[in-house]
């Protein structure tokens, strides 16, 4: 039964399963639990008492696996939609016991092969038993290479040893202090395979919030809630602590799965029940199906009988299920915009393109309003009331596009009662056609002059009082606004006003397995060097944003230079633990004029603005309702008029570091960023990327995890693409050399570290690659 049907809810967080013991009667097992309200079972596929080595001593004469029924006992649809295979939990591939290790490997492979044969969607892998999981990961990686549809969920206890806490290394087989590190090692050894994800065991005590936050950037497919994590309320029903509730909500919101285990509740009712069932709450895409009827296996029958005798036909875990359903229902209804989010994750989908078009339109609507306010304020400052009817202000919209800023400027003039003369400068001839028809349509011929030209080479007939432009990218300057405006400011009066007057870019390190895997799927470096505009959703923001570059206009500095270099040091909260930086989120904030801002930097409250996310929500809600209720539309317009709705911001993932940019950030780290123009053909930089960081950490301790990044920006033409080059501190490079030259096997080394030399060629249309000796060489396309 889904936890709740919410309008527009397509999330994976609505389904709830139950972990069962081994039963050789799958139909009965399924029937009992589905009738009990669960959507699926997580069931062992093979008798846990079985060991492959028994066969050597005649333990199994048949050669067949002691499985939970043949493939024919359930329909293919039931196997696929109702059963998650639980791989034998005794498996320990890193055991010192040779026989156990060998049995483990054989069993793991056989059970997964059986699950594949049954067409299961997923299997739950047991948690790594100890600190070392290299052989386990190697074996899983091998399996993943030959499986295409099966998802493997690695069970990981949600625990991290905090300072001052007593050590409890017995739990989960002596798992390490920070289970995130176990997961990180494992997935790195499995090369970020997208079929490998996490099933988090949520225990009664939770790590600190910052360390919990790391999981939101990880592919958590299931959360397993243990009944021991529940409290009992005054009426005797199970409930969760505030912290657990908050975590659950966060999981729901991230479409992460949550799971609950039930030993506590069952033990309260009847001793043996604690070994019978464990409850899961899953948020997954298991389709609903009408379960077939059946009867119960011995243990299930016994359990059921006890319930009958208690006069209670409910599943013993039903109160827990109901409580989770209640929490889910308690969440605010999903905004309509959320329906589009999955589309936004996939930048290449046509549906995303369609949605993006709408979002862009809305962003523009909001921008125009902010621009109108900025122009109004500038007009008030420029022309005193007494001169309003006599002085004509010359305003140039440079990069006019299809005319929205021309319209915003004329509306500002009307609003302030100032006289305006507008030049609309646009280099795109197609947009100029639209501009001409707009001017004709609106009857602006006497006020607006259209100039079809590049602003940098246009000879203006007169100088402007106000220069209005919107050439900003999501990372501020990345669409070459500084270079264009520097070219245009020669036709701004010395005391003239530029709108925007300044803008700043921001960076923030993030963990985001999802986006990383999407980029990695392209299997080339080019995609790692691309900046993506995405809705950041499944990300862990590891440290607060930091400002990167600021540009101010007009810029009359004698040494005007758009090259920039800065170093950023990110402070990761001390209770976070280790973290993996997949990339950086980029943002901007622009001052249009005085207190009028446009921005998407999340932590900086921009006056009278909402985030893009919330505004997008507002837009879709209001627009749809407007068709139904005119007054709401009027309300929307009023809000716009009084600027109570701010400009929508676009959250952006700027994958600004080229290559797979990993940095094991168990301590704070920094990057250095340079922006600018280089015409030296001989300019060679080093790109250092650290992959498989835990291995890297173990073999080459990064004494100073400090990454230097040089960012060169093609400064001359907006039509040319800029490139980003990373330089790395020498000690990191030395580590790499040391690894290459000896002790470490090449393969391991190559998967850990990649050192690439770039040549950055401004002039050459086909830059020549520089060979880096033992490493790979790449082209840098400009
Ligand atoms: C981001 S769009 C903004 C368009 C419009 N102002 C709006 O708000 O919809 C930037 C516009 O500037 C134009 N543009 C960019 N560089 C230019 C240049 N050097 N000279 C003239 N127009 C330019 C582009 O063609 C594009 O139409």
Spell out the key features of this protein:
782 residues, TIM Barrel, Rossmann fold, 3 domains, nine-stranded mixed β-sheet, 23 helices, disordered C terminus, S-adenosyl-L-methionine, PRMT5_C
Determine and state the CATH class of the largest domain.
Alpha Beta
* Global Rg: 31 Å
Strand-residue fraction?
15-25%
Distance between the termini: 54 Å
Q: Please report the total strand number as a whole number.
A: 27
pLDDT averaged over residues: 69
Structure overview:
The chain is built from 23 helices and 27 strands. With 782 residues, the chain is an alpha/beta fold. The protein has three domains: 17-55 and 64-333, Alpha-Beta Barrel (TIM Barrel), CATH 3.20.20; 351-508 and 513-529 and 547-562 and 585-653, Vaccinia Virus protein VP39 (Rossmann fold); 657-759, no CATH class. The strands form six sheets. It has a nine-stranded mixed sheet. Strands 17, 18, 19, 21, 22 and 23 form a six-stranded antiparallel sheet that branches. The chain has a five-stranded parallel sheet with strand order 14-13-12-15-16, covered by helices on one side. α4 (98-117) runs parallel beside α5 (134-146). The longest helix has 33 residues, at 350-382. The site of S-adenosylmethionine has 19 residues, from α14 and β13.
């Amino acid at each position: 039964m889904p936890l709740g049907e919410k309008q527009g809810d397509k999330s994976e967080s609505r389904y709830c399963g139950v972990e069962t013991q081994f039963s050789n009667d799958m139909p009965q097992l399924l029937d009992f639990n589905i009738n009990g309200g669960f959507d699926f079972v997580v069931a062992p596929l093979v008798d846990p008492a079985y060991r492959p080595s028994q066969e050597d001593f005649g333990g199994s004469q048949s050669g067949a696996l002691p499985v939970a029924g043949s493939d024919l006992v359930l329909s293919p649809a039931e196997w696929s939609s109702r059963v998650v295979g639980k791989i034998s939990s005794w498996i320990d591939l890193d055991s010192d016991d040779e026989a156990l290790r060998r049995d483990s490997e054989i069993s793991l492979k056989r059970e997964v092969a059986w699950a594949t044969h049954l067409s299961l969607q997923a299997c739950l892998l047991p948690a790594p038993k100890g600190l070392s999981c290299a052989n386990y990961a190697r074996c899983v990686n091998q399996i993943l290479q030959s499986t295409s549809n099966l998802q493997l969920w690695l069970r990981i206890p949600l625990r991290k040893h905090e300072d001052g806490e007593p050590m409890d290394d017995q739990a989960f087989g002596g798992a390490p202090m920070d289970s995130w590190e176990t997961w990180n090692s494992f997935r790195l050894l499995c090369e970020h395979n997208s079929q490998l994800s996490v099933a988090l065991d949520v225990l009664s005590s939770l790590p600190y919030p910052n360390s919990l936050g790391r999981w939101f950037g990880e592919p958590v497919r299931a959360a397993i809630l243990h009944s021991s994590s529940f409290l009992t309320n005054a009426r005797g029903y199970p409930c969760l602590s505030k912290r657990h509730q908050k975590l659950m909500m966060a999981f729901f919101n991230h479409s992460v799965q949550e799971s609950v285990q039930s030993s506590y509740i069952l033990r309260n009712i009847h001793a043996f029940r604690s070994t019978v069932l464990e409850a899961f709450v899953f948020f997954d895409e298991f389709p609903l199906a009408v379960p077939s009827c059946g009867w119960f296996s011995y243990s299930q029958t016994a359990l059921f009988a006890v319930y009958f005798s208690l006069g209670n036909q409910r599943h013993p875990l039903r109160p827990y299920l109901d409580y989770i359903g209640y929490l889910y229902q308690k969440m605010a209804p999903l905004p309509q915009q959320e329906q589009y989010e999955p589309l936004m994750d996939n930048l290449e989908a046509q549906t995303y393109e369609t949605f993006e078009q709408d979002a862009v339109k809305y962003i523009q609507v909001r921008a125009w309003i902010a621009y109108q306010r900025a122009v109004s304020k500038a007009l008030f400052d420029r022309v005193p009331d007494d001169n309003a009817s006599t002085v004509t202000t010359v305003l140039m919209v440079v990069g006019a596009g299809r005319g929205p800023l021309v319209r915003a400027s004329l509306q500002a003039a009307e609003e302030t009662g100032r006289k305006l003369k507008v030049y609309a400068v646009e280099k795109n001839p197609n947009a100029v056609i639209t501009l001409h028809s707009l001017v004709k349509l609106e009857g602006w011929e006497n006020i607006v002059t259209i100039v079809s030209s590049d602003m940098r080479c246009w000879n203006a007939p007169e100088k402007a009082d106000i220069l209005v432009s919107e050439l900003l990218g999501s990372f501020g300057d990345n669409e070459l606004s500084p270079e264009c405006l520097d070219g245009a400011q020669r036709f701004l009066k010395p005391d003239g006003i530029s709108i925007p007057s300044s803008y700043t870019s921001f960076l923030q390190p993030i963990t985001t397995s999802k986006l990383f895997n999407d980029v990695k799927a392209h299997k080339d470096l080019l995609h790692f060097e691309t900046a993506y505009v995405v809705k950041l959703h499944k990300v862990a923001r590891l440290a607060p944003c930091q400002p990167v570059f600021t540009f101010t206009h007009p810029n009359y500095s004698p040494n005007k230079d758009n090259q920039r270099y800065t170093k950023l040091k990110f402070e990761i909260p001390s209770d976070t633990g280790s973290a993996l930086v997949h990339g950086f989120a980029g943002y901007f904030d622009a001052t249009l004029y005085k207190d009028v801002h446009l921005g998407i930097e999340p932590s900086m409250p921009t006056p009278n603005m909402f985030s893009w996310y919330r505004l997008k929500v507002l837009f879709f809600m209001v627009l749809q309702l407007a068709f139904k209720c005119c007054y709401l539309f009027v309300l929307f317009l009023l809000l716009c008029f009084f600027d109570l709705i701010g400009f929508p911001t676009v959250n952006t993932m700027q994958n600004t570091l080229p290559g797979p940019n990993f940095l094991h950030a168990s301590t704070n780290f920094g990057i250095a960023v340079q922006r600018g123009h280089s015409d030296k053909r001989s300019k060679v930089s080093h790109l250092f990327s650290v992959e498989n960081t835990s291995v890297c950490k173990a073999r080459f301790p990064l004494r100073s995890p400090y990454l230097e990044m040089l960012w060169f920006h093609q400064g001359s033409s907006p039509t040319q693409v800029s490139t980003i080059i990373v330089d790395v501190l020498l000690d990191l490079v030395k580590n790499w050399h040391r690894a290459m030259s000896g002790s470490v096997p090449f393969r391991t080394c190559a998967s850990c570290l990649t050192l690439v030399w770039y040549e950055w060629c401004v002039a050459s249309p086909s830059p020549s690659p520089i060979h880096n000796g033992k490493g790979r060489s790449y082209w840098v396309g400009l």
